[in-house]
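For the sake of transparency, this paper describes our internal protein records without simplification. Such a record has a labelled line for the sequence and another for the backbone structure tokens. Nothing more is needed to write down the fold, since each code stands for a local backbone conformation. For reference, a complete record is included directly beneath this paragraph.
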Amino acid sequence: MQFRNVLFGVIAIAAISAASAQVPPTAAPDQEALLRSSDPHLAANKKLVFDMWRAIIQGGRTDLVSQYFTEGYIQHNPNVATGRAAMVDYMEKTRPVCEIQPRINFPVIAIMAEGDLVMVATVSSTDDPTAKGKKYAGTHFDMFRIENGKIAEHWDSVAKDANAFKYNPNTQNKPQPGCKPRH
């Protein structure tokens, strides 16, 4: 009898959990508000990352890379070699050159700064391994270390993937406007 009650309890908990398995993340309604800070240094760091994202990550404008990144840029994404030149090579292989947009095309959840670090959280859309042809919403994190007004280091939540050089994250949610192939 006791086993039966425990089994019923486990089934009931599983049913409740399945009914409320995920609350999808949502974007902040105002990206510009995310750039504000009472500390001008933190506001400048957030703006640097915001502008870099729009120009380099989203726009593929590798001609502007020295404006945003230190020469000795350190990369912690396991799919991209460290160094500014390696990052340029990766960007040129994975995305077209696009018009720089006024906002980040990804749904941005938060842009946070503390000391010399800036973290950007975005909504990601990923193929659902349990439902063929469907996607689920998750959260992607990028963190940047700022040194003398430029990005010196990057971390993200990306796993090692053999397809990394065939993947443009900007088209994950929707195609980008105003883009031209590189070659």
In short: The helical segments are 2-19, 31-34, 40-58, 65-68, 84-94. Residues 40-58 form the longest helix (19 residues). Strands lie at 69-75, 97-98, 108-114, 117-127, 135-147, 150-156, 179-180.
